[in-house]
Amino acid sequence: MGLVTASNLTKTYRVGDIDVPAIKGVNFAIAASSFVAFVGPSGSGKSTLLNLIGCLDHPTSGTLKVLDTDIATLDRRAAARFRGENIGFIFQDFNLIPVLTVFENVEYPLRMVQLDGNKWPAEKRRARVLRLLDAVGMTDQADKRPDQISGGQKQRVAVARALVSQPKLVLADEPTANLDHDTAYRILELMKKMRDDFGTTFVFSTHDPKIMGEAETTFTLEDGRLQNGGSHV
Amino acid sequence: MFDVLAIASRNLLRYRRRTLLTLLLIVIGMLAVLLFIAVAGSFKSMMVGQITDSVLGHLQVHRKGYVASIDNLPLNLNMKPQMVAKVEEALKQNPAVETWSPRVKFGGMFSNFAETTSIRVNGIDPAREAATTPLLPGRMVDGEKAGALVGRGQIVIPLLLARGMKTGVGDTVVVVATNRDGSVNGKTFVIRGILEGVTGPGGRDGYVHIDDARELLRMTEAEVSEIAVRLKDFSRLERTNGQIKQALEGLTNKEGKPALEVHSWADLSPFANLARMIDLMTLFIKIMLVSIVLVAVMNVMIMAVFERIREIGTIAAIGTPPSRILSLFLAEGLMLGLAGTVTGMLLSLAAIFGINVWKPTFNFGQQQNLVMAPTIAAGDVLTIAALVVVVAVIASLQPAWKASRMDPISALRHV
Ligand SMILES: Nc1ncnc2c1ncn2[C@@H]1O[C@H](COP(=O)(O)OP(=O)(O)OP(=O)(O)O)[C@@H](O)[C@H]1O
Ligand SMILES: [Mg+2]
């Protein structure tokens, strides 16, 4: 039993009167604390699959269980709550909140998402944010605004934000597509280190062959179908 | 450190110029409304005060049908002494009534022994009349302002009549009147004073002592044409009017119909229509304020949501509850409204204060150099302020709702 299990999972978009099948019946399992990549050409369904795992979308058929929860059963509010509690997100365009400082961006999920205020009292919250900033090497930039730091630094902050509320799973759709190769590589290294330090499961997608090599488990998607059962390196 | 309000305020500051323009609109709207209410409101209450306190009184009681034919001052529609006693009893019972003044009204001919003209005369009890219409002595432009309004054998005449007849204080004149039986009688009077006219009914009447009036009209009983009533609290006019009406309803004539009628000043003076117009304009200008705030804030908030679709997608994806996204945008509208309200309120109060220091004057009808002294009730200011804030929040409701319902995937994909 994995952290994420999909059986016969399909997703079909409906555009006007036409059905566009994006995921065509896939089966896979992702083990806890693994470092997993979904790879494949453009349009193969990587983003669609990651959105499903991230409870941002509902499957058309089949089942997808994330942390033993059948995500088809979650309504909007429950899905938001589930994501806030269990899943961290890293985006291709970093997506930091521009009016907040680096520190506040990392703090955001603890203040605005986790509604249980007792869980993160001010002192504990501050310590947690500082620890994450230290882990991603951004402590000295804590008071800067996102527009005052580089793309690579932004993604480091995004990694810290994704991890701050101790999620079981972090999803990253093309996290390095907007970074140069060296920086991309370092972000991957950082993610892997975070996995080692915190035991968080990382699932990312990429179509960059050099980055794929960093994954410990690689699922190859081709036209909405998995090409292998998950090849382990 | 941040929370919903802090994030909202930073987002407002992010587009400083746009925020300032919206604030400017709200401030101008507030200024217009509060100044209008203050200036028009004080104009209205001043004019109403002039009318009630120098001629009409707050309420008047007549025999049924008198007001309908008031232009003729009919002598056959006077109240008999028993009826007057009952009215006075009812007025005495009502704690809201301050005082009242019985009047005998009639039309007659006024002669200076060379020329003759018509005149409308009020026979009054000078002390009671002065208590009921306290501004009346102040209208005396010639003759002693102090002392009894008129004594026996004296008459106070309106300024236009005095000018037209070229008579002045101290002159002897004759007033001739026809009584209800059709017989004519005359009586000489000495002019005691000249009254400045006021706009509205009764504004150009003369005054004699009530006993002289009865003598001239050869009344066998102490009849009364009208009773003018002054209340302790003008703001309770409507209620007291109703109470007095109810108390007098029981007095019926031979046919069993009510024998008396009660009118408030507004029923008797055409200025009441002007006052109603002012109220209506106040309402319109309030509606305009609401529309301005609604459109200005809604416009800004729709733009704010549109510009921040990806940001909304991000915070929604990482699990921000929809209710919190809603409150983020509502907070922005709220703060916009609050900032505009506070600024608008302070500027308006400063402007009203400025007018009071400057003391501009205006003319209305025959009255000249009335000093404009706008005041505004704290309740009015707070109501308008609350209205603006509430409207600002309502205006952000739709955009905020839209933001909170956004699908994270399409929002994130938005370019
Ligand atoms: N909202 C949508 N409506 C209709 N079709 C969609 C939608 N989103 C994705 N698709 C289609 O689903 C298929 C898979 O798209 P998806 O975005 O998952 O691919 P991807 O592997 O992420 O591609 P890329 O590497 O370019 O990001 C494509 O054919 C795409 O056109
Ligand atoms: Mg994609």
Task: Tell me the layout of helices and strands.
The complex is a heterodimer of chains A (233) and B (415).
Chain A: E1 4-15, E2 18-30, E3 35-39, H1 46-53, E4 61-66, E5 69-70, H2 76-86, E6 87-90, H3 102-113, H4 122-135, H5 151-163, E7 169-173, H6 181-198, E8 201-206, H7 209-212, E9 217-222, E10 225-226, E11 231-232
Chain B: H1 4-14, H2 16-56, E1 59-63, H3 81-93, E2 97-111, E3 116-124, H4 126-132, E4 140-142, E5 154-158, H5 159-165, E6 172-178, E7 184-195, E8 206-209, H6 210-216, E9 226-231, H7 237-249, E10 260-264, H8 265-268, H9 271-307, H10 309-317, H11 322-358, E11 361-364, E12 367-371, H12 378-404, H13 408-413
Parallel strand pairs in B: 3-8, 5-7
Antiparallel strand pairs in B: 1-9, 1-10, 2-3, 2-6, 2-9, 4-7, 5-8, 6-7, 11-12
Helix pairs in contact in B: 1-11, 2-9, 2-11, 2-12, 9-11, 9-12, 11-12
The complex binds adenosine-5'-triphosphate (ATP) and magnesium ion.
Task: Please explain how this structure is put together.
The complex is a heterodimer of chains A (about 230) and B (about 425). By secondary structure, chain A is an alpha/beta fold. Chain A has one domain: P-loop containing nucleotide triphosphate hydrolases (Rossmann fold). In chain A, about 35% of the residues lie in helices and about 25% in strands. Chain A contains 7 helices and 11 strands. In chain A, helix 6 links the parallel strand 7 and strand 8 (about 200-205). The two termini of chain A are about 20 Å apart. The model of chain A has no long low-confidence stretch (mean pLDDT about 95). Chain B contains 13 helices and 12 strands. In chain B, strand 6 and strand 7 (about 185-195) form a beta hairpin. Chain B folds into 2 domains: about 1-50 and about 275-415, no CATH class; about 65-260, no CATH class. Helix content of chain B is about 55%, strand content about 20%. With about 425 residues, chain B is of the alpha+beta class. The mean pLDDT of chain B is about 90. Chain B has a 6-stranded mixed β-barrel with strand order 2-3-8-5-7-6, surrounded by 4 helices. Chain B has a two-stranded antiparallel ribbon with strand order 11-12. Chains A and B meet through helix 2, strand 6 and helix 3 of A and helix 1, helix 10 and helix 13 of B. The site of adenosine-5'-triphosphate has 13 residues of chain A, from strand 1, strand 2 and helix 1.
